[in-house]
Amino acid sequence: WTVKNNLHELTDARVILALPAYVSFDEKNQTDVGNLYYDGTTRQVIWEIGRLPVSVYQAKAEFNISVTPVAADRDKILVLSPGSTVSAMDAETKDTIIKKTGPKTTKLEDDEIAGLNNTGRVE
Predict the structure, then answer these.
(1) Cβ neighbours for 65, distance < 8 A, ≥ 6 positions apart
(2) Could you tell me the pTM of the whole model?
């Protein structure tokens, strides 16, 4: 994830992703700021950024997931992420900002190398 900010200071910034049942969080993660963790009860990856001043143009977080397809998934494209929700409070306007990302699949749409010869279908 990359969160960018260049207008007003943000507070209570966080990113949430609910993982599909066949996707597992493997506890390996890294962040520039804040704390990233997995809530096993809700199956959510949560990045608590907190305060993001304008002087910090962007913050990044990374984490690993694993997928365990079953026989019924053969020849299907699986959803790895149904999309994340980013929320924060604009410190100047006091408005809550909410942004949602699109889904990511086994087709790996953003990966130029995988896109060269990857249909995204489970084999």
Answers:
(1) 19, 23, 24, 25, 26, 80
(2) 0.89
102 vs 71: CA distance, rounded Å: 27
At 15-30, the pLDDT tens digits run 999 999 999 999 899 9
**Residue 35 is encoded by which pair of tokens?**
């704390």
List, for residues 65-75, the tens digit of each pLDDT value. 999 899 999 99
Q: Please report where in the chains the tokens 């609910």 appear, as a residue.
A: 18
Q: Which of 54, 83, 78, 55 is nearest to 68 (CA)?
A: 78
Pairwise CA distance, residues 93 & 53, whole Å:
14
